[in-house]
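Input for the complex:
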Amino acid sequence: MPFRDECGVFGICHQEEASRQTYLGLYALQHRGQEAAGICSGDPQGLHLHKAQGYVADVFTEAALDALPGDAAIGHTRYSTTGGNVASAAHPFLIHGRFGQVALCHNGNLTNTEVLRSRLIADGHTFTSPSDSEVLLALINRAQADSLEDAVVAALREAEGAYSLLILTEDALIAARDPRGFRPLAMGHMGATHAFSSETCAFDLVGAQYDRDVEPGEMVIVSRKSAEVRSRFPLPKVQAKPCVFEHIYFARPDSLVYGRSVMVARREMGRRLALRHPVEADLVVPVPDSGVSAALGYSEQSGIPFDFGIIRNHYVGRTFIEPKQTIRSFGVKVKLNPVRHLLAGQRVVLVDDSIVRGTTSKKIVQMVREAGAREVHMRIACPPTTHSCFYGIDTPKRQHLIASYMPLEAITAFVEADSLGYLDLADLEGCMGDDGTGFCYACFTGNYPVVPG
Amino acid sequence: MPFRDECGVFGICHQEEASRQTYLGLYALQHRGQEAAGICSGDPQGLHLHKAQGYVADVFTEAALDALPGDAAIGHTRYSTTGGNVASAAHPFLIHGRFGQVALCHNGNLTNTEVLRSRLIADGHTFTSPSDSEVLLALINRAQADSLEDAVVAALREAEGAYSLLILTEDALIAARDPRGFRPLAMGHMGATHAFSSETCAFDLVGAQYDRDVEPGEMVIVSRKSAEVRSRFPLPKVQAKPCVFEHIYFARPDSLVYGRSVMVARREMGRRLALRHPVEADLVVPVPDSGVSAALGYSEQSGIPFDFGIIRNHYVGRTFIEPKQTIRSFGVKVKLNPVRHLLAGQRVVLVDDSIVRGTTSKKIVQMVREAGAREVHMRIACPPTTHSCFYGIDTPKRQHLIASYMPLEAITAFVEADSLGYLDLADLEGCMGDDGTGFCYACFTGNYPVVPG
Amino acid sequence: MPFRDECGVFGICHQEEASRQTYLGLYALQHRGQEAAGICSGDPQGLHLHKAQGYVADVFTEAALDALPGDAAIGHTRYSTTGGNVASAAHPFLIHGRFGQVALCHNGNLTNTEVLRSRLIADGHTFTSPSDSEVLLALINRAQADSLEDAVVAALREAEGAYSLLILTEDALIAARDPRGFRPLAMGHMGATHAFSSETCAFDLVGAQYDRDVEPGEMVIVSRKSAEVRSRFPLPKVQAKPCVFEHIYFARPDSLVYGRSVMVARREMGRRLALRHPVEADLVVPVPDSGVSAALGYSEQSGIPFDFGIIRNHYVGRTFIEPKQTIRSFGVKVKLNPVRHLLAGQRVVLVDDSIVRGTTSKKIVQMVREAGAREVHMRIACPPTTHSCFYGIDTPKRQHLIASYMPLEAITAFVEADSLGYLDLADLEGCMGDDGTGFCYACFTGNYPVVPG
Amino acid sequence: MPFRDECGVFGICHQEEASRQTYLGLYALQHRGQEAAGICSGDPQGLHLHKAQGYVADVFTEAALDALPGDAAIGHTRYSTTGGNVASAAHPFLIHGRFGQVALCHNGNLTNTEVLRSRLIADGHTFTSPSDSEVLLALINRAQADSLEDAVVAALREAEGAYSLLILTEDALIAARDPRGFRPLAMGHMGATHAFSSETCAFDLVGAQYDRDVEPGEMVIVSRKSAEVRSRFPLPKVQAKPCVFEHIYFARPDSLVYGRSVMVARREMGRRLALRHPVEADLVVPVPDSGVSAALGYSEQSGIPFDFGIIRNHYVGRTFIEPKQTIRSFGVKVKLNPVRHLLAGQRVVLVDDSIVRGTTSKKIVQMVREAGAREVHMRIACPPTTHSCFYGIDTPKRQHLIASYMPLEAITAFVEADSLGYLDLADLEGCMGDDGTGFCYACFTGNYPVVPG
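Predicted:
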């Protein structure tokens, strides 16, 4: 629960209401970022941009969407990671350059941003924000290439790290995914319309059919002028390493990610967790919403009844005025309320997706115990998170990850649980149908597929 | 899902941060009304009011709460039922009259509003809105009584129908509940602080302990000047008839309503539904969020696995811009997304709390079927809704209630389900531990405890 | 400059776009009150109200005006005088009572509000605000009368003090002015449309022609159902005493007030001031904007050149963030800037409309002197303001009026002027063509035409 | 009246409250642009930017100013000339580049923007907006120079046209003015604080003393790290050509522009106009506010009385809802109201600053005539405007300038005046104390000091 993904992207081409459909797509991807949103659309007059801080529903009005005409659009929803001038870091970025107008939005983090940025600055380029997306646009613009498409290829050959990109130009909508495929990017269609999205739940809302993922290292070019759609694999082939955390926490349970059902994967994590860490208990309770599927799996496997022993208040928004005399654990209580009548006197298996700093888990365990639970057995649907992510997830620095500096017993004591069990890495691989090579598990292992910058 | 409750009320006394705690209380009651919110606080200078249309989080800013000083407050969150000038109908209502300043907020509907209002108008009174709360205040002000407290009693003797009231004066905070106890009203405390709330989930957030309900026909008077708390039963004793629909749909599952756990009651409804209407099926799927507990009970009783085959997007707010070329079933799809990979090829038991007009159910069944379900068996956790409510729930007129004019088979065909089963009234009574006399079941039976006006 | 008038009213009948024309009318009357604005319109469905705090341009959107249909409307723009809950005191007030829906808005202050209000409260009436307009509506509603029109007459017979009223009912638009005619109220027409306004500048904007004033003590009833327009004089005849300060300060210079040009009157005040208080000087400088016309008259009469030695910044709005280290005289400087190049070394005649507390005048004199003026001779286009107004002008309490407790020499010293001259009362009468009986001069004389409450 | 200037700039250094003082400065310069505003401040952590569309008072809140810490700041207020994405064109522009962070804001237009921009794009640079300020920043960043200061010099050597620039870096605040000095730029101080402003009225508000203008072709470098202030003249010396229109229309009358009083110049224009185009008349009436000073001069010279025969409503803001049935000349009437009682039967000399398209003048003449004027003699305080401006004033294309295609008689007929007189060019020179070489008169003569791009 305490992680924050940085972005969701959505793009569409050959669609009469391109910006409105992109708005819907971003709506479905809102869980991937709530700080800022933007859409760039294209019509024969050029590209049109609107972006601002806030929820999708607040950033876009009828008037704003009317000012985004055209049959192609890309959009972005963002979780800000850098403090300061958030406004200047909203996506998409739009430049006027050698190839006319080019807009780009981006999920993921480059790992060599600083090297590239310094080189570009030394070469005379300027930037308006710290965003690595501006670096990508600069690389594209300065590439030794005659066409925009080749320039994108040249730029991607220099970029390292994680990116699922959507690029809109006067001629094409281009989707690209880094060779490791760190972040997801799905493609689909409805009639002659082509669509791309971080997750398939956005296709469901706009009525598009999921066809396949943009492959790791693949670039898909949809012509805006014709029906042509081309695929290229211009980058050196490496072992793909898509982020397993999308399945553990980020993605919406109704999405397919990497072609697999998120919900099915999570349920299996719960089942394997029950096999690995069984416990005598009366009730399986998820930390809502992210622990729900795993808790169902745990219950199914263990035979211990499942119930919503904690209720989430979905009205909690961005602004919340706390009482001046702070109530203990207030930050957790305003979102989560334990159901005393279910919990009182019970031995509870509390299932969550992960533990980061440990402080929130501690508050939840306390809350459940204060509601009367006799025992609280915490079960975590992934291995201990010991390393930071450099590929697009806003994890704290390593030293703040409790599992990086505390053994299991100490964490158990810290969160005040009666017992604590994490999913085994081998079990996680099993849930993903993986032989141990097919996903990025760096946050559990420190084996970084690409050296962090 | 398609019902709308009209209000939630919260009040607090002998609390340094009365208005801030009331804000929290309303936050927890937000599900009971999202159109308008208001708080009236009292300090030695008098009463202070702030109310406006919108969500609790939008209506109140730090500045607004700072302008509501004092150690007593009452608040209200509202679902507007009358069209037109919504602004003038937000609660609390504050008057300057015979007894100084008096503020009132109200959950429920009087059934003799028009008679009382006409009489008061004939007597020279004026009103600024169509609200029955203004009628109550007028009755109080014009009562043949020397004290405010006696005036309230006199007014309540004239009022018929449903009311859970909170009244704030310069001297007291008064809570009152109609003799049938149609709408809930709980009381609790923390230290010397007394609190009242439509549901106990608000007590959980502010850290108050639930003590008991304000009884049907009871009036509780908390002195603002002393520690005195008095209880009176000034109205003729009748058989209490609290609204069973609070347990079926309105209340938050983590609340106690009428002293019973809502979640426990709902789970039992699901269990009994499984006994009464078993079916061969592969998956029990709730219509989220209101069908979840009953679906868990159905699954538990039937042994058919439970899963979230439909995912709700909680980011859907008040404003949503639809595409111009309306997509089929769009209104349902923006909130609910079927999980194709769970549903494909399955025989699904779809559990919802109730059916009103039938049109939403039809869209959901279609959606589930389009997602690949082989069979869709609809199970409804209450009896057929055949009659309108006159006690505070915004049901459509009787002729729009599908169960009032269609037999079961026709409804089954209309919603395009393979089978349809409602909870039996006797089973519902059983779930509530009732012998058939202890709750209002009028929306299922037409046996109105108080003659509608 | 430092006075604040409380209101402007505008009404119109038999006009297809009644609420939009009223919006324009209020726009033109914005100088009479900037705290709140409201319009009530009537169509066959009833009366429709929209009012809020803020400027006319902010309170009304296209959508708000579209929600005010009908061919009759009344509107109000207000300067709040009471602190606290400003929102509840915006006009018009709309009630549902004996005569159906009745809306009222009001310029002026009743002097027996407290007596009436106490009596009405004792009789069982309630109020939602401290406004005397609510008292008028209550009197109307409770009058011993069979028709709304007679009820208005009965109410006005009880009301004392100042009122220029507009009342909208389902049947009529009624305009009424108190027997002294303290506050202005003009009537006009365009084709079949009848219009009423505090000042004629609003007629100019909507394209109506000024016909005459509603007379002191007159009631004009415009039928909404027919072309009938009737005039009544139902109140005891007394000597009219219209407020002379409208001509000195409040009214827009392009208005006719009491049938006379405000600008012409002010110029004449300046001329007589020059005759009464001549001085050797180089330049006549007005305090903009209220001193401009009198300064022109002074210049014309004296032959001393006129120029804008002080420039007003018209962009100064409601919110202005002051520097933390307050600059001396900042509050005056942000609005008024002295023109150094005109003032340096000059002997300046500084003309303002009036002096209230003296503090602002002192700052302006200092500012002019710091800009290099060698001498500053202050000339005030009215007599010393020694008494508070009880008829609708927001003057400070008597003890704060500098002229009530300081002789001329002391005021001259206090404001740091080289000389100070006020217009003589006899001269003021002369400017108004008055024999001393035709206007209210109470703020200069203490001779109150109606005993203050 | 119908011209729009594009910008005002203000900068300050060695000032504890730099951003708040800049806010004040922009407030005083609001008349130079009302579409957007921005401030960039610098503290030891770097540069901080806030800019948005809207009035200065709306763009900046306390919170926004608190987020602009530091002892140096530059700010800008803007009149948008390009349609489309106005948001991206607000100033200041802030880049991260070779010289670290550099912010720039700019009054004036480059004439070789397109050439420079194309070259920079060919060289691999990219732009986020069409603004010529971005071109300047790119030139600076790519200059063959080792220091920021030399890079600015190199950039200015390439830029042609009009610019009064303020540049903020981590080390310095730099002010620069193009060699012709087309646009004004004043410098002043208060204690150790240095300030720059388009007009001196901003100095008056912040309490700074005007010292002198930044000279045409001069660059003033204020060190942020020391008390050093240096002046350079790095550009080829040419005949200065400051814009005479600042004195005719743009500047606030209380400002010194090019070291001369705007108000004094305007009054002199009126005097010379009266000498050149005398007429038998009863009243001199300005078109407010821009014609006021000239009208005073005309009156003084001619002996014909001056009065405000037209009153301006200063509450007219950005949004104004017009009636659906458009009233004739409504656009003019909502701002300007003729004073019937002054004008009726009179022979009026109507003084305005300039005529652009002629349509507004025509409406004003009609309005004055409808108000009863017997004769309307129009007098314009500048020569006929026959050519477009390319140096920072938003004039229409030449073919829309009525004086470019109509002789005087035809214009007289078009605006329906009884006579029409323009100020002679030689007289204008005289008013400015010029021998005909010292100002840019291109809009009257077509003699462009710099060839338009």
